[in-house]
């Protein structure tokens, strides 16, 4: 009995010592948003309304003058690991434009293909693809939910409901984001367009959202001076990246300088592709994010967006 009492007392003392040691202030993890090395990373930390709780790393690389990519790892203010990817595309550059992609570059409905293959199908001299992301939500047969324009041709002019939005490049090469009710205003001027869903920003204001779900996501925003930002966040992988909420994407878009922004298709569709080789050799496109389906395997999607140069 005495031995057990001594043993129990020793365990209690050891537990108290361990608890005291683990709770010393100097042993606590210190969180900091300091240290971002890139201009885009610094903008996100400074201007996203407290979204970033802990900064880990950020890297920027230039694909061509006017096209910059950011890869950034953070812990959100709610304690979630997030890996995000950002494209900055300056459409004021005369060599750059954005195009709506399609499976096999055929411009047909009711068909699907992985974004790497859609980029390869379009890629050619005089229209070289620099980057690609997934586009609209779609039905199981590959029919997109929203409007769809390629090369000035309307492939689909209907939307499933009034939640639908769209991203378009006009015939004058102006990037615009519109809602269901704004389609008639722009329809005669659209050169390229894909549909989206939830509106994240309007006229510089981040919109309140009812859904707080964390998911892999793709979003697109435009600025007053014709710069396009595309944001992809990986998700559904706790230790690597948990995804983003609509409101969080809106906050990041505002920090980057967007005036209007919408959510594109997400989940296993979210894909962030860059050109890793200048020429037209095999393997010239690299998937930089981690598509959720089947542990990183691209999902076949109905359409997407390509960043294209005529150089």
TrEMBL record:
Secretion signal, residue range per the UniProt entry: 1-24
Domain Phosphodiester glycosidase: residue ranges: 128-307
Gene Ontology molecular function: any one: hydrolase activity, acting on glycosyl bonds
The UniProt record lists the keyword Signal: yes
PROSITE patterns xrefs: PROKAR_LIPOPROTEIN
Xref: InterPro entries: NAGPA
Record's keyword terms, sorted: Glycosidase, Hydrolase, Signal
Keyword NADP: no
Protein name, as recorded: Phosphodiester glycosidase family protein
């Amino acid at each position: 009995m005495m031995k057990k009492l001594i043993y129990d007392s020793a365990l209690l003392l050891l537990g108290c010592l361990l608890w005291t040691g683990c709770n010393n202030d100097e042993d606590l993890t210190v969180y900091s948003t300091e240290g971002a090395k890139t201009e885009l990373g610094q903008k996100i930390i400074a201007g996203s309304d407290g979204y970033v709780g802990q900064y880990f790393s950020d890297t920027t690389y230039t694909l061509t003058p006017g096209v910059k990519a950011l890869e950034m790892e953070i812990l959100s203010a709610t304690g979630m690991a997030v890996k995000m990817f950002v494209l900055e595309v300056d459409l004021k550059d005369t060599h750059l434009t954005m195009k709506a992609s399609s499976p096999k570059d055929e411009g047909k409905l009711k068909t699907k293909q992985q974004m790497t293959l859609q980029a390869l199908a379009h890629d050619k001299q005089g229209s070289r693809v620099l980057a690609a992301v997934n586009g609209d939500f779609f039905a199981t047969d590959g029919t997109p939910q929203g409007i769809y324009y390629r090369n000035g041709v309307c492939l689909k002019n209907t939307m499933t409901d009034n939640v639908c939005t769209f991203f378009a490049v006009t015939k004058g090469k102006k990037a615009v984001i519109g809602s269901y009710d704004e389609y008639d205003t722009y329809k005669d001027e659209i050169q390229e367009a894909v549909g989206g869903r939830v509106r994240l920003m309007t006229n510089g204001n981040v919109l309140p959202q009812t859904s707080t779900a964390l998911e892999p996501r793709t979003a697109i925003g435009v600025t007053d001076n014709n710069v396009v930002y595309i944001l992809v966040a990986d998700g559904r992988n706790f230790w690597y990246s948990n995804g983003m909420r609509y409101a969080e994407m809106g906050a990041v878009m505002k920090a980057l300088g967007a005036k209007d922004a919408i959510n594109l298709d997400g989940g296993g569709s979210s894909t962030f592709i860059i050109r890793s080789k200048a020429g037209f050799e095999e393997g010239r496109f690299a998937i930089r994010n981690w598509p959720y389906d089947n542990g990183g395997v691209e999902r076949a999607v109905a359409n997407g967006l390509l960043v294209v140069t005529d150089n």
